[in-house]
Design goal:
20% helix, alpha+beta, Alpha-Beta Plaits, elongated, 2 domains, 136 residues, two-stranded antiparallel sheet
C-alpha cells in the first residue's frame, strides 16, 4: 500500500469546491484527514494522508488538485522525541489531540505512535524539558 502525507493549500476561491471528494470518487484514493482549517472565502489548509495500492494513482490525484490551482506540498517534517532528556512527565500527553503520545502502567514511560500523529505540534511547546522537536 502506497501512502503519502501532504499539505493542501486551497486558494479562497476553491474552498467551496468538492475537490477532495473527487479524489475518492474518481481516483479511488483513501483519504485520512489529519488536520484541517477550511473557511469559505478564505485560504484553506488541509493536512492529510493519501493511500492507494500504487504510487502512480496517488500522483494522478495530486496532479488533478494542482491542475485546479491547489498548492500541494509533501509533508517535510516530523516530531522526534529525545528519550535521553525526556523525564516522562506526561505534559505532552495532555495536549495531544490524536492520542499519539501516551503514558501507562507498568513502566510509566512515554510512548509515541508516529502513525497517529497529526503534526499539530502542540506537544513541542508543552514539553518542559524541550525533548520534543520538529525535524524538517
Amino acid at each position: 500500500m502506497a501512502k503519502k502525507r501532504v499539505i493542501l493549500i486551497f486558494p479562497a476561491a476553491l474552498t467551496e469546491e468538492a475537490l477532495v471528494y473527487k479524489l475518492v470518487r474518481d481516483y479511488q484514493l483513501a483519504i485520512n484527514i489529519l488536520r484541517a482549517k477550511i473557511t469559505p472565502g478564505e485560504e484553506g489548509r488541509l493536512v492529510m494522508e493519501i493511500s492507494n495500492s500504487t504510487e502512480k494513482a496517488i500522483e494522478r490525484g495530486l496532479d488533478y488538485l494542482r491542475s485546479h490551482g491547489v498548492l500541494v506540498e509533501e509533508l517535510g517534517h516530523e516530531i522526534r522525541i529525545d528519550q535521553d532528556s525526556c523525564i516522562d512527565c506526561g505534559a505532552c500527553t495532555g495536549v495531544c489531540l490524536s492520542d499519539a503520545l501516551s503514558i501507562s502502567a507498568p513502566d510509566w514511560k512515554l510512548k509515541f505512535d508516529k502513525e497517529k500523529c497529526i503534526l499539530c505540534e502542540l506537544c513541542v511547546s508543552a514539553c518542559p524539558t524541550r525533548s520534543i522537536k520538529v525535524v524538517f
